[in-house]
Amino acid sequence: TEIYTLSLHDALPIYRVVMFGKKDPSDMSMVRLLIEHAVARLRRAYNLETYPPTRVSELRDLDYQQFERLVARNWQAQGYDVKLTSGGADGGVDVVAFGDDETVAIQAKRFGESNKVSSPTIQRIAGAAQQIEADRAAVVSSSSFTEPAKETAGKLDVQLIDGRSVIDRVRRWD
Question: With b meaning 16 or more CB within 10 Å and e meaning fewer, what string describes 13-44?
C-alpha cells in the first residue's frame, strides 16, 4: 500500500467536483480520475525513474528541475554520460551529454501547452554550445517550437525535441 499526502493544489479540484459538480454525487468517476492524476504526479515527484511521464500533459506537471533530470535520463538511456549543470550561471546549458564521439549542449524548457520555444532560445543555446566547445546543441521542450525557432534551428544546426518526442523517447528507455 502506498500512502501519499495530497497538496491543496491536488485536493481542491477533487473537493470542487464533489461539492459543486454538476454531476450526480454518486458518480465518482471524475473524482477517481482527479485522484489518479494527483497520485501519478506524486509518484513522479518521488521517483521519475520508476514512474516516468506517459503523456505530454504530465511533463508540464514536473517542476523545472524534475524536467531537467528527465531530459538527462533520456540522453543517458541513449548511451551518453550526462552532467546536469548547476543552476544560475549555466549560460542556457542545463545538461551536457558526452557521447563516444560528441558532446551535446542541451537546454530543457518546461513550458505550458500554449507557450512555444522561440528563436532567441535557439540562438542562446547555439552560442552557449560554442562557448563550452560542444559539438552540437539541442533544445528539449515539454511544448513545441515557433516556426521562426524551427527556421533558426535549421540554420544553426540545433536539434529540436518537442514534448511528444520526449514521451516517445521515455517509452524506449527499457
Answer: bbeebeeeeeeeeeeeeebeebbebbebbbeb
